[in-house]
């Protein structure tokens, strides 16, 4: 394990923001994670734990230690007729893990195909797409407590998963390094392709009884058609969460905007696509300096090449203000803003 000084984080964040870290270390084994935590008093300094860097916005040089998690490996822990338990190490690429499952016909993560990033970050915000979230296949994770270097296990309940939320973004923020995640997948899955766009793609391909592979392929096709590829255009996916508002407010706004989409999350709450709100405020496709809201998906803010983090943050604030002024709805960042 070697600690480097003053390292550029540009290759380590998909927004492609140029910012340096005062210190940088790559960790390849559980032992290295524990040694680092036990040897240095890490609670005294700023830390940035890095997976694929696909859900962060660096706003300036990072005057602390960036820790890139590289632990690799996937193994079957247990298997019976119905289920299979697989442990994947935190540094595995998420989509590689998905492909491993899809190829073996183990169901549960096919709708989460092609989400960028690493396995270790997936529980952080309970990644979700196309009607699925990892909480429904998540069994447990192991994490090293930064203050003590001790290894602990967290069950599904203990992670307190919600929409783009977990305990690690809230009360345990900055306290643990996730080192592995165990998933419980289904050997006889009932596939979920009710999401409109998936059905359309399957229908077009003439598929009436899709396999796990078909659903995964459809999701990949949809994602590629909508979302900018970070290797071509810097971005971190949805910049904001979709806000949940009271049914009463929703009905009120709908009088003026009858086309406003919304999905009930409970009897009195409606989730509204932030992309629609942003598009109504005429930000979709707009370019502001080196940044902008993407032309196909207004929820994705992009870096046209040389944007710095503050430019993106300023644009995000302007978008938040205009959505608030027009709809009286506050949209919150989904991306982790690194100060
Ligand atoms: P990073 O960006 O490296 O880290 C994210 C956060 O987790 C940071 O706070 C970091 O400190 C922390 N962290 C990372 N690893 C660890 C660890 N091992 N232990 C403790 N803390 C850690 N997300 C979705 O949910 N659904 C989508 O459909 C989706 N689509 C996307 C599409 C695009 C084009 C892009 C660029 C992003 C998309 N995202 C989506 C967001 C992103 O891919 C996910 O949030 C992903 O899980 C982030 O993984 P990462 O390894 O890149 O995390
Ligand atoms: N819409 C617009 N204009 C836009 C974008 C969206 O009007 O520019 C409206 C349309 O009505 C569309 C609806 O929003 O039907 C939903 O759009 P989409 O299916 O693209 O999904 P989303 O709600 O914008 C969420 C996630 C994505 C995830 C997709 C697919 C959040 C914050 N985002 O986006 O996750 O991939 O659903 O399930 O929940 C991410 O987290 O980075 C991410 C990309």
Describe this structure as you would to a colleague.
By secondary structure, this protein is an alpha+beta fold. The protein has three domains: 3-69, Uridine Diphospho-n-acetylenolpyruvylglucosamine Reductase, domain 2 (2-Layer Sandwich), CATH 3.30.43.10; 74-186, Uridine Diphospho-n-acetylenolpyruvylglucosamine Reductase, domain 3 (2-Layer Sandwich), CATH 3.30.465.10; 234-338, Alpha-Beta Complex (Uridine Diphospho-n-acetylenolpyruvylglucosamine Reductase, domain 1). 24% of the residues lie in helices and 28% in strands. The protein has helices at 30-39, 94-103, 196-204, 212-226, 247-256, 274-280, 309-327, and strands at 4-8, 20-27, 47-50, 56-58, 62-69, 74-79, 83-89, 128-129, 132-133, 138-145, 151-155, 176-186, 234-238, 244-246, 263-264, 269-271, 287-288, 291-293, 300-303, 336-338. The strands form six sheets. Strands 6-7-12-10-11 form a five-stranded antiparallel sheet. Helix 3 packs across helix 4. The mean pLDDT is 97. It binds flavin-adenine dinucleotide and uridine-diphosphate-2(N-acetylglucosaminyl) butyric acid. Flavin-adenine dinucleotide is lined by residues 14, 48-56, 69, 90, 115-118, 120-122, 124-125, 127-129, 177-178, 227, 230, 235-237, 336. Residues 14, 48-56, 69, 90, 115-118, 120-122, 124-125, 127-129, 177-178, 227, 230, 235-237, 336 line the site of flavin-adenine dinucleotide (FAD).
